[in-house]
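Re: that chain you flagged

S.,

Sorry for the slow reply, it's been a week of failed gels. I finally had a moment to sit down with the sequence you sent. For the record, here it is as I used it:
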Amino acid sequence: MKITFDNFDPKKLIPADQVPWPHPDYTDLNDWLFEQATEVFEATRYLAVSQYDLALSLWHRAGRPTDGFECALWTKEEALG
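Prediction finished late last night. Pasting the structure tokens below so you have them in one place:
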């Protein structure tokens, strides 16, 4: 289901640092956010949260889909290397 402002509730998002690992690559996550939450993607510049953190939380809430991802998910050790 596409995420729009009609069904977007920021109170239901968990903080990005509480999203369980592994996490997607920034590019894959950015593409996912643009495709699944175009309205929210366009508004991120006005929100007081990083685009990655918002996208990560939305992606987690959407069930952690990986369709169309070009990179493998990153473990915490790989990401923080």
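What I noticed first: The two ends are 34 Å apart (CA to CA).

Talk soon,
D.
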